[in-house]
Amino acid sequence: MDVQEQPTAGAWGEWNPTEDSARPPRGKHRVLKQRGGLARSSTVLGVGVIAAVGAGGIATAQDRPQVAISLPSLPALPDLPEALGGADRSAESAGDSDAGSARTAEPARSGIIPQQADRRSDAGELLRSRILQQAESQQEAAAAQERAEAERVAQEAAAQQARDAQAAKEAAAEAAEKAAAEEARLAQEAKEAAEAKAKAERAARSAGAFFLPTSAYTLTSHYGDSGSMWSSGHHTGLDFAAPTGTPVKAVGSGKITSAGWSGAYGYRIVLELPDGTEVWYCHLSSMSVTGGSVAGGDTIGRVGATGNVTGPHLHLEVRQGGVTVDPLSWLTARGLNV
User: Fold this and answer.
1) CB of 297 within 8 A of CB of 201?
2) What is the three-class DSSP state of 282?
């Protein structure tokens, strides 16, 4: 098959198909006539693109300078068979030209393929870098999230510890307050009990209760004992021997009618009871009350050894209507265990 080769510009030149180089179309191909005398066949356009790209492929054509393809104005084809025959001849011519172009472009591939590989290597490295950056960003985000979670947990633990400490402090304060309140209540109850006891004692005294004149004593001389130690020849009272300073108490409620020095009796206090009975307290070392009303059990003086005595003791006399009576019998009659 004869193909007219045109002069080339560089690796590929400009190729303009003409009426002489185009064969009449074969088969049932149709080429429509256009007004103005221009008719382009799809087959001719495809041959031109293949001739421009060549055997190097689309990727090789992108690296080479663009090839200008000019489509000349073709005269009107005479009839359909001839036009179809011409198109077939153009296709065969284009095939032969394409084979030649592949041989011509073969040496040029050695310089194009490394460039294409370099670009792919750069793209792969860029993709790898982006993947590593994304993985690093994800790791940093995960680490930041873990730190935030740890800080949150630590804050919650600190807040819970503060709440526990506050609760313990409040519980301790409440317990201390309850203890203080309980102590105050017990103290108040003790105070009220003491006041009630004192009130009961005062009431008992007012009701005529009687008390022993002293405590921790020993009876040494009884009423009616005779001897040279007494001016009247016999003992007119009851002696309670006790250490000096031992309290002396009123045997019942009454009033102090006399308090002072009384010769052989030493320091003496006279207590008059409501029924007129007089109780004498003699040989006192001191006198606590010298006048006024007293209640039974009140301390009115101290045991001593003043006057005509042989040792510290309380000489107790009981007189009714100016006459002495036995103190022991009088006290026993009032329920006292002397």
Assistant:
1) yes
2) strand
